[in-house]
Amino acid sequence: MSTRRLSLIVLALALPALIGCAGDAPSQAPLSKAALDAVVSDSSVPREALARRIDDLFADSQSGDTYALLIFQGGRIVAERYAPGYSKQTRFPGWSMTKTITGVMIGMLVSDGRLKLDESAPVPLWQRPGDPRGEITLRQLLQMRSGLRHTEQGEPLYSSDEVRMLFLDGRDDMAAYAEAQPLEAEPGRKFEYSSATSVILADVAAHSLSASAEAPARRAIVNDYLHTRVFEPLGMHSAIAEFDAAGTFIGSSMVHASARDWGRLGEFLRNGGSVKGAQVLPRGWIEFMTTPSPRNPGYGAQLWLNRAQKDGKQVLFPGSAPASLFACVGHLGQYVIVSPAQKLTLVRLGKTDSDKRDRLRDHLADIVALFPRT
């Protein structure tokens, strides 16, 4: 037998094995000690699997920059990791996650009897005879269906109402800017997500607490209410609220808190308004906040729901996570994701531009999917 023929026979015999080796999945790089140390060893999910998915999130520049990731499961922290330069003590801006705090504060005031959900929102400018805005109710404001003309994230950016209100011509008296807008639809008939609406809610809260129009007095009484009725009972001791020059709480965007305290907000919501067994806010109010708005099944009352959005945009993960999941969502990819069916609260804080948001959501969905439903 020729040497060449023998070589061909040997190659043919070895070919299946070579093909099999080529089809093997590449081995994963070992996890760093820091990645493993971020996850507790006795969680309900495999420690290495959770650590790897969190590591993938931090390492993936195509999902933006993650500064903090924290997970409560069953009421205790099972994962916590920070990027260099950030820590448990860092206060992070919540941006639009602040809207949920505004919704909780309004719930407290309704519970106190200071506000009525289905009565005309007590905005003095709207109470003039013949003003159709006087028909707008508190419920409609909370569910983003006031009918007011507000454009969020418009083009060009400087024309957007949230930009004008927060940073340009409306910044000194944000409530006055928001409340001056005319109706573009009958109250209750149209869903339109609006940061200006949450500032109106913050102004309504101030009017319900004090008759004073003086900025220092408005700021002091609302700040005190936020701390004594919301932040302290929830254990959010790091939380700081910002106010505009007119003394109005910037209830659309400006609460800063540590990752753990943002997680405590999520746990409070997951537990139906209770903290350590004490009912801080009636359970019915949390049920209202997590009930779909009549004009958008993917939104409740100052909270996003895990359902298809009316405009078809993807905000959470409908179809790949429990339908009962909901979230506070903020500008640049801030999330407090709450899944009661999994006893789970996940906090992600960082900076992700809109063109990378889908990739970020995929990472978060992968992490949520690790946790079993109870």
Description:
The chain is an alpha+beta fold. It folds into two domains: 29-90 and 327-374, no CATH class; 93-258, Beta-lactamase (3-Layer(aba) Sandwich). The protein is built from twelve helices and eleven strands. The protein has a six-stranded antiparallel beta sheet with strand order 2-1-11-10-9-8, with helices on both faces. Strands 3-5-4 form a three-stranded antiparallel beta sheet. Strand 10 and strand 11 form a beta hairpin. Helix 3 (47-59) packs antiparallel against helix 12 (357-369), helix 4 (98-111) packs across helix 9 (215-234) and helix 8 (195-209) crosses helix 9 (215-234). The radius of gyration is 25 Å and the shape is globular. 44% of the residues are buried. Mean pLDDT is 91; it is low at 1-25.
Termini gap: 68 Å
Mean of residue pLDDT values: 91
Helical/strand content category: alpha+beta
What quaternary form is this?
single chain
The CATH architecture category of the largest domain equals 3-Layer(aba) Sandwich
Largest sheet: 6 strands, antiparallel
**Pattern of helices and strands:** HHHEEEHHHHHHEEHEEHEEEEH
Query: Helicity, in percent?
Result: 25-40%
List the strand order in the largest sheet: 2-1-11-10-9-8
Shape by Cα distribution: globular
